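Quarterly update from the structural biology core.
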Amino acid sequence: MRKTAILIPALVIALIGVLSSVFVVDEREKALVLQFGQIKAVKEEPGLSFKVPLIQEVVKYDDRILSLDTETIEVTPSDDRRLVVDAFARYRISDVVRFRQAVGVGGVRLAEDRLSSILNAQIREVLGADQVTSDTILSEDRRILMQRIRDQARNSARSLGIDVVDVRLKQTNLPEQNLNATFARMRAEREREAADEIARGNEAAQRVRALADRTVVETLSEAEREAQVIRGEADAERNAIFAEAFGADPEFFAFYRSLQAYEKALQGSNSSMVMTPDSEFFDYLKSDRLAQ
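Predicted structure, tokenized:
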């Protein structure tokens, strides 16, 4: 009984010692084995690992790609138009030993504070460089600027054991106090452009109307000229026919001309005429002339 009473506590202590010496490294993690703050082993492969109980401790770090949102900052491009920039970065702990040596017990929080400072410094440097204007930042060329920020931040973050995978500019806006002035300037520019377009449209309309009026006048003049020519030719042909008819039968031609005169003289209300009885106007209406 006495041996049993001694053996059971010993087995429990041994079991606790064995269990405390075993730890599991997940495939999404990297682990450091520390002894009195000094790195004794690096565990980057997933599986079971061992450490000395009570003396050594295990610190684990996430091996996945992590995200970091930077604080909103103001930058001044080369055209002196200030912009409010909000960015985010994606990074991973590439060298866990260097990471531990750089941040110590501060861990990821301290590392992100330092990485945020690096990103802000690189954003100001790249966006404030010569030949980088606010229009460049707001255009499709911002992709090139983001790559430049990423590359420079990656070089600076290597001392922390961090690999910067990507940097994106989420927002690039004007400060609130500049928005109204910018909108007013944009509105004035658009109104000026609209006025210019209206003036050019009116000028083009005047040219079209003048051309149309000239075309109408020329067309009418040409038509009138052709009509005069046709009328002249018709009159000439008519006179020629009359002359030919007069030459063929002068008596019939005189009769025909008298009938035309009667038709024109006795139209509508103009049916009363005052003339002498022996007038030659009604010469062909006399019975004796008809008898002939």
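Residues 2-62 form one domain.
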